[in-house]
Specification:
Elements (H helix, E strand, L loop, with lengths): L11 E6 L2 E2 L5 E5 L2 E5 L7 E9 L3 E11 L25 H18 L23 E7 L2 E5 L6 E3 L8 H12 L6 E6 L12 H14 L6 E5 L5 H5 L6 E6 L2 H8 L6 E5 L2 H11 L5 E5 L8 H9 L4 E6 L2 H11 L3 E9 L9 E8 L5
Parallel strand pairs: 4-6, 11-12, 11-14, 12-13, 14-15
Antiparallel strand pairs: 1-5, 2-3, 3-4, 5-6, 7-8, 7-10, 8-9, 15-17, 16-17
Helix pairs in contact: 1-8, 6-7
């Protein structure tokens, strides 16, 4: 890892004991009390690193040499690892990746959410650690086709992605074989599914759906699936509810959900802030379960207020960003009890973490 390209003039080289792996994937060491972040390191290792960026509160460094290696260190199978910005954990044994991610979820909920006695469940692993992604987006510029370099807007030429499915890599090979590829972005898929948002790891997405099925309380009258996409969760839960309302801003996703909708399903293309508030106001007397699966920015202040004021009996929060999840739970816990927190490894080898939280209203008309 010591020959990674550096864009910054060297400041100084330091020896560090790595104490932890932070959310985002970088190892954490300390130099004279100041935190130093070093990518591609594992807690317990002693490393030599070059400080490349110094801030008042912390410093960023590049790994030069691993002096004392972790027993969890493995040889990355991908030739682009260390340069490509996609993966952060290929140097770590998979079981230990899971342990790191589980700990990161707990720690960020404690630190940002100020939560205590968090009812953490075991992390749900991915059956496939490589070759699981059913789509990737590559970029083309000046004849280079690939991904952005780590911490850079420069592209690295990629012939094959180790975490993509074979069909996706074949699509990449076909794109690269074209004589003239225009500059731009190209999303390559393993199948001809509707081009609406969906999870990219089928096996873990199915495990998440099954988990939600167990978390959704029986004998509820209404399911409101906010950020519903094409209805992946809603359609799996139809048998549990008398009525289902799905809400999403993406009209193409709503059209896909409507294609095979039953009489009990109602899908709405619109502003989630407005439509969720309206749906909960209209159905205030019903026993209601709400699923929220927001983007990485988390719930807006308006959605949080709606959930707080009109607290449904059951709330299931699916998050792709533990930091914004922690922020939202800090507010929602005043109205809800957190029954369980379940991390899922939707993206092995990367620093990304999916989390499902099951909440129950502590005081509600439902």
């Amino acid at each position: 890892m010591g020959n990674l390209p550096r864009e910054h003039s060297p400041l100084r080289i330091v020896d560090l004991k790595i104490e932890d792996v932070a959310f985002g994937g970088k190892g954490v060491g300390r130099q004279n009390g100041k935190v130093v972040f070093v990518p591609y390191t594992i807690e317990g290792e002693t490393v030599s690193a070059e400080i490349v960026r110094e801030k008042k509160q912390f410093a960023e460094a590049e790994l030069i040499d691993v002096k004392e290696s972790s027993p969890y260190r493995v040889i990355p199978p991908c030739p682009y690892f260390g340069s490509c910005g996609g993966c952060a954990f290929q140097h770590i044994d998979y079981e230990h990746q899971l342990a790191i991610k589980w700990r990161q979820v707990r720690d960020v909920l404690q630190r940002i959410g100020k939560l205590k006695d968090i009812p953490m469940r075991p992390i749900i692993p991915s059956p496939e650690q490589y070759g699981y992604r059913d789509r990737i987006t590559v970029h083309a510029q000046d004849g280079v086709i690939g991904f952005f370099r780590r911490d850079s807007h420069r592209l690295i030429d990629i012939e094959r992605c180790a975490i993509a499915r074979d069909e996706v890599d074949r699509a990449l090979a076909e794109l690269r074989a074209q004589p003239h590829v225009r500059d731009g972005h190209y999303t390559l898929r393993a199948s001809s599914r509707p081009r609406v948002f969906s999870q990219t790891n089928d096996a873990v997405a199915n495990a998440l759906r099954d988990l939600i099925d167990t978390l959704a309380a029986p004998n509820q009258q209404l399911l409101i699936d906010a950020y519903c996409g094409a209805g992946f969760f809603a359609k799996a839960l139809l048998d549990k509810f008398d009525r289902v309302i799905g809400i999403d801003w993406d009209r193409f996703a709503i059209e896909a959900a409507d294609e095979n909708a039953t009489m009990k399903e109602n899908y709405i293309a619109g502003d989630i802030e407005v439509e969720l508030d309206h749906a909960l106001q209209e159905t205030a007397l019903l026993k209601t379960t709400v699923i929220v699966d927001p983007p990485a920015t988390g719930l807006t202040a308006k959605v949080r207020k709606t959930l707080f004021d009109l607290a449904p009996a059951t709330l299931i929060y699916i998050s792709c960003n533990p930091a914004t999840l922690a922020r939202d739970l800090k507010e929602l816990r005043e109205r809800f009890t957190i029954n369980s927190v379940t991390p899922l490894d939707m993206f092995p080898q990367t620093a990304e973490i999916e989390v499902a939280v099951h909440l129950q209203a502590t005081s509600s008309a439902n």
